[in-house]
Amino acid sequence: MKHLQVAVGIIRNANQEIFLARRAADSHMANMWEFPGGKIEPGESAEQALKRELLEETGIEVTQAKVFDRVDHTYQDLRVTLHFFLVEAWNGEPFGREGQPQRWVKQRDLVAEEFPPANYPLVARLKAESHQNH
Ligand SMILES: Nc1nc2c([nH]c(=O)n2[C@H]2C[C@H](O)[C@@H](COP(=O)(O)OP(=O)(O)OP(=O)(O)O)O2)c(=O)[nH]1
Ligand SMILES: [Mg+2]
């Protein structure tokens, strides 16, 4: 089975809002909301891929990224390992640079079912951690 290594950015601003983008209609996990990111290329570290993908997809230059989680998930015919980073420092203002819809959502208001199934446990963790801070 194909196995993808993917770098993913949880972009969080000072208001505890997280930047989400909508996946394209013709992609795997079409029309789901996602944390921006993409495939790690040969010879790249996860963090290098994160920086490249976030620049391509959202226009920001990541200046600091913290490892947040690593998730392994098998879809029907595709295995993915998602390398999640928490991004709280960047230059620029994120936007859907590839024309994809975007929105900021309060961390505590995230809805797991809007994301690909691989993200469910991670979204639950983000919501749980947001309650501690109130
Ligand atoms: N970016 C991203 N991908 C995710 C998430 N959750 C999840 O299961 N995936 C899966 C969907 C895809 O099968 C896989 C790779 O993501 P991708 O389609 O963004 O890869 P990419 O940007 O390199 O895509 P492309 O250049 O080939 O268009 O990871 C998520 O939150 N963000
Ligand atoms: Mg992508």
From TrEMBL:
Its cofactor is Mg(2+). InterPro entries: Mutator_MutT (IPR003561), MutT-like (IPR047127), MutY_C (IPR029119), Nudix_hydrolase (IPR020476), NUDIX_hydrolase-like_dom_sf (IPR015797), NUDIX_hydrolase_CS (IPR020084), NUDIX_hydrolase_dom (IPR000086). One of its GO terms (biological process) is DNA repair. One of its GO terms (molecular function) is 8-oxo-GDP phosphatase activity. 8-oxo-dGTP binds at R23, H28, E34, F35, P36, G37, N119. Its EC number is 3.6.1.55. NCBIfam families: mutt (TIGR00586), PRK10776.1 (NF008044). Belongs to the Nudix hydrolase family. This is 8-oxo-dGTP diphosphatase.
